[in-house]
Fold this sequence. Notes:
The chain contains three helices and four strands; from the N terminus they run αββαββα. The chain has a single domain, classed as Aspartate Aminotransferase, domain 1, CATH 3.90.1150.10. The protein has a four-stranded antiparallel sheet, covered by helices on one side. The chain is elongated, with a radius of gyration of 16 Å. It is an alpha+beta fold.
Amino acid sequence: AALTGPKDFFGEVVTVLRRRRDLVVNALSAVPHLCCARPDGAFYVYADCRSLFGLMTRSGSVLENDSDVAGFLLDEALVATVPGSSFGLSGYFRISYASSDEDLAQACRRIAAAIGQLNGARSAS
């Protein structure tokens, strides 16, 4: 069926994934301390989170690396990301956009709100 079925399915999937990619890239790029490049392929983006290193969470923990950032986003924003260092890209976190537009928009809002709690809370070290 995959070989003989309608060929426009893949075009529709690509259109949806591009829209979701752009939603995530644009939303995360608007968050202070994050920078997000627009990937040409895949179903995930990497956000540069190195500007968050040295910031303190509300609980007093200092974000020292991308693993700390991923843990912080899971705990505070309830958003699952993966440290870029797991893929050889330290200083970044990876987030999938293989989800609904609504879920992605909510995840990006939660990330922005959680990071907003860090602003001005740089550690003394």
